[in-house]
Write a structure and sequence with these properties.
This protein has 294 residues and is an alpha+beta fold. It is built from four helices and twelve strands, in the order αααββββββββββββα.
Length: 294
């Protein structure tokens, strides 16, 4: 109903129809409606009036539609929020999986580098070499021992020297069918014959029960040894092959009135980190093993 119709009804028609019968009201309303239809069809001014009435009614229509539009907007935002939350969860899960793969790839890369170092080391050896893997450590803090996954079934034997990619680690002290126990060079009960790589000066490096230190106890106070010198295995005793890095000198202390200098060295092998190891069998040890078999 147009605004003009509503005003006419309030001002004129309602008083006229007050107290009249339903049939009369229907006839009068019908005549008014027909008249308005004819006027709208015959007179162009009705189009202008209709436009103004529509403009006047527009704010009301907009206000009436506000709840519906507000509900539609809220529903769309909630749907978008749910979709974003689900997508965020999915992306977070994918990120975690990707990070796990990256960590695994990083670990595999490092392990490949270590294995490559070991293989490069074995190419330079004249001795028989077995690649082994560390599978356990001794829980006693005063005993520096590790367990490897090769036993006498793999050719490991008591006294066999053990190296990593950077130097001498120790020697096998006991074997079983599938595992062996290795005594590290830093154990307090271990000693290894060494020589200074710079000048060939011979000595013996003793373990102190600390992973970072070895001590040379029998060098005279006038011995030619300096901080930074590399100690290599001398091959004496036929236990460790000659020429492998053992330690680097980090302290040389001369005391007045003392016959011997105090020399400390740091092992070159990564005793607390290496996982892949080399078991070395020298030609002398091979001959001894063959004589034992005979």
């Amino acid at each position: 109903m147009f605004k003009g119709d509503w005003i006419a009804r309030r001002l004129v028609i309602d008083p006229l129809f007050k107290g009249r019968s339903t049939v009369k009201k229907f006839i009068i309303y019908g005549l008014i409606s027909i008249s308005l239809i004819v006027a709208d069809y015959q007179f162009d001014q009705m189009q202008r009036i209709r436009g103004w009435l529509s403009l006047a009614v527009t704010p009301v229509q907009w206000l009436v539609d506000v709840p519906q539009r507000s509900w539609t907007w809220l529903d769309e935002r909630l749907q978008v929020r749910d979709e974003l939350i689900a997508e965020n969860k999915q992306l977070r899960a994918q990120t975690l999986l990707a990070e796990r793969r990256v960590q695994k790839l990083a670990a595999l890369t490092v392990e490949n580098f270590r294995l490559r170092d070991l293989l490069n080391s074995s190419e330079q050896l004249d001795e028989k070499v077995i690649v082994s893997e560390l599978i356990g450590i001794n829980s006693d803090p005063f005993t520096h021992q590790v367990i490897i996954n090769n036993g006498f079934n793999s050719g490991a034997f008591v006294g066999q020297p053990v190296l990593d990619a950077t130097g001498v680690m120790g020697q096998i002290t006991s074997t079983s069918a599938f595992t062996s126990r290795v005594l590290l060079i830093t154990d307090a009960d271990h000693a290894i014959p060494v020589q200074v790589n710079r000048n060939g000066l011979r000595s013996v490096a003793y373990g102190l029960g600390q992973y970072d230190y070895l001590e040379l106890q029998d060098l005279s106070d006038t011995a030619d040894i300096e901080v930074g010198d590399i100690l290599v295995s001398s091959g004496l005793g036929l236990r460790f092959p000659k020429g492998y890095p053992v330690a680097k000198v980090i302290e040389v202390k001369h005391s007045a009135g003392q016959d011997f200098a105090k020399v400390l060295a740091k092992p070159t092998a990564q005793l607390d980190r290496s996982r892949h190891l080399l078991l070395i069998e020298t030609p002398q040890q091979q001959n001894i093993a063959l004589q034992g078999d005979n």
